[in-house]
Every structure is written in structure tokens, then in C-alpha cells.
Amino acid sequence: MHPKKLKMIPQQVLVQSTSVDSHDPSVLAVDIEEAGRRISVGRSAIYELIKAGKIRTVPAGRKKRVVPIFELERYLKDNVA
Known about the structure:
Elements: E1 14-15, E2 29-30, H1 32-38, H2 43-51, E3 58-60, E4 63-68, H3 69-78
Parallel strand pairs: 1-2
Antiparallel strand pairs: 2-4, 3-4
Helix pairs in contact: 1-2
């Protein structure tokens, strides 16, 4: 039995934390630090949201996980007071 292959996100669609223009609409996913910046929480809070299943991540290259932008948007939409 072969292990299930995961789809990988191409490196060019990711935003690195040090990126100057991190709100480029062509970016589909961001690293953990950028995800935290975008919703104004720290890195630890993002990891807690991931662990709780409130934000899903995907594998991408050598990075352990990245956060799709639509996941951040969904999380914010679902948690508006």
C-alpha cells in the first residue's frame, strides 16, 4: 500500500515573513508568522488555532505548514462578534 501523496503548494505563491508587499492578491498562502500578522495575533496563537482545528494548513515544500488566505478569511468571518 502506497502512502497518500499530499498536494504541495508551489513556492512562488507563498509570502515569506520578510516580504515587503505581503498583501499581494496573487498570494494564496502565507507562513505562520505572516498569518499571525494578518489577523493581529502572535505566532503561538496561530499554532493554538491550528491545533484546535479552527484554521487548517497545507504542506508546502520544506516548510512544515502554510496557511491558505481563504482559511484566515473564513476564520475571521465565522468569528465576527
